[in-house]
Known about the structure:
44% of the residues lie in helices and 16% in strands. The chain is of the alpha/beta class. It has a six-stranded parallel β-sheet with strand order 2-1-3-4-5-6, with helices on both faces. A six-stranded parallel β-sheet has the order 9-8-7-10-11-12, with helices on both faces. Helix 7 (197-210) links the parallel strand 7 (187-192) and strand 8 (215-219). It starts with a helix and ends with a helix.
Amino acid sequence: MEETDQHLTYSGRDEGYRLGYTDGYRIGGCEAIVKHVAEESYSLRNMKVVYVPQGFDAIDLGVSETLRHLVKVFVKASADEMLTTVKKEKPDLVLVMNGLHVFPPTHHDHLDQIRKMGIKTAIWFADDPYFTDDTASNALHYDYVFTHEQNCVAFYQTQGCSHVYYLPLAMTPLTFHPKRVAPKYVSDVCFIGNAFWNRVTLFDALAPYLATKKTIIAGGHWDRLSSYSLLQDKIVNGWVPIEETANYYNGAKIVINVHRPHEAGSDNRNGRNITGCSINPRTYEIAGCGTLQITDIRQDLTSYYRPGYDIETFTSPDELQEKIEFYLQHEEERRTIALRSLKTTRSKHSYTDRLKRLLEVVRSK
């Protein structure tokens, strides 16, 4: 074997050993956190609930599996099958997730028929405030309105809704949990999501730096980048299934989280320009994988995480680059924050917590 080839072989082995050791250390720490966080407690409610999913796989899975443990009878039905299923099952509650995009034109009429049968209906909006041009009228067809966006509570009240509640989203450990992944998912820096224009601006600014790192950017419309040619070999184009998303999060040293813009006309239907102040489900999902997250700042963030303790934040491309570089060079600090984030999320931000609150509201009114 040539000396150079031998050197490369040994270097590859050393790198593989180092990565394996580091990943093993991370997984061990994560397993200790998961083991010591108290198991979720379920108290079965004497209710029959029909759940109508939106097609947000991670959210729908979390809600479905949690409701199975919280109510005596759980039935899932597509939007097209909702009315037929309700007539057959006669549930106590019909819970609809989001009610947009994949729902038929007859959905509102079917809801009105269900309410005339004396059956309670509830909607949990998970896309606020980005489609409020549509949800403004949708909300009026439900007895209870829950929204993950705090700034939309007053909005729905002004539309004439009597029972409106702020209910943040969460993460499901069925999908977003610490695990070892294949080498193709391993990165220094990762971002999963579509190329909304605020994200394009940020990644164009970071492109020269990210080009020098093992970077993965996955999602749609990233050809919007002015620097596309510089980052092209780091981009995975198209929709990313939730299992793949969890793999990318687990394989990354750092995951960037950037909320989408709320302004009307920026890939949104938010003509009233309601500001987004609440955090997205990605915040909880990244944390659930035991990976360091650096996120832009939403007003409501500090209600759920402590910047510098169990999450990191940025306000500009320069600050983000500086923090990425710092945490890539300081493994112990990076791992410590990630483990704290996992503990916070497992302890406080489950769908069990959220759905207990939702069911208590419905039962008390």
